[in-house]
Description:
6-stranded antiparallel sheet
Amino acid sequence: xxxNEVKELRVLSAEHNNTVYEMQDKIKEFPQHEARLTKAAxxxxxxxxxxxxLPIDSETGMPVFRITxxxxxxxxxxxxxxxxxxxVLDVRQFDTAVKIGEFQGFxxxxxxxxxxxxxxxxxxxxxxxxxxxxxxxxxxxxxNRLEGALYNVDGKISDLNTKLxxxxxDYEEAQKIVSAPFPQAEELEQKEERLKTLTQKLNEAAAEAxxxxxxxxxxCYFERAKLKKEAMRIAQKKPEKGKDKEQKKKPSIDx
Length: 255
């Protein structure tokens, strides 16, 4: 049916328009997203340059361990873990970053998260880019977590570059979608015109049929009431006639 085809095409057209609106939003937000990712990548590169200047441990191939807790520098991991634990346990405030020292030259702060914020304790090494590590019960392992969060700078840069590439590809695709018309627009327009013409003809035919239809006789209210009263009078009179006939047929005593 033509009307069903028009309905289906209108649904497709509405879906196309919704997609266009979404792509327009992406295009509008693209400059800010690109600037934010680019800035983050540049900040990571700045931190990487700082890390490259640190002395390297010949045995581990990583920067020589060095952490400062509450003004005291530690190079021994066991002592550092104990001091780190004490400093974290001394934090009483929830959801507020508290600076407790430095790790590899980066300011080190910890935040005790309230239950509404997910709980636990988070450590952040604030360079040009914030390097975050979620702490656990073992502070010997927490030192490893600090190193993992800070030394994985190349991986973070790679991830950001991947996001930037995808963002730019999506931006170009969004521009193509916005500039392209609804592919079945012509078909929809033609079928809507045909449906409009057909509907108009059907309406005209219905109006003509109504116009030529025989008129039904209409009885006014008072006429109907008069007829009803007359019918009741006749109905009441009929039994009397029948009674008179019976009296005429009955033989007389005198006969």
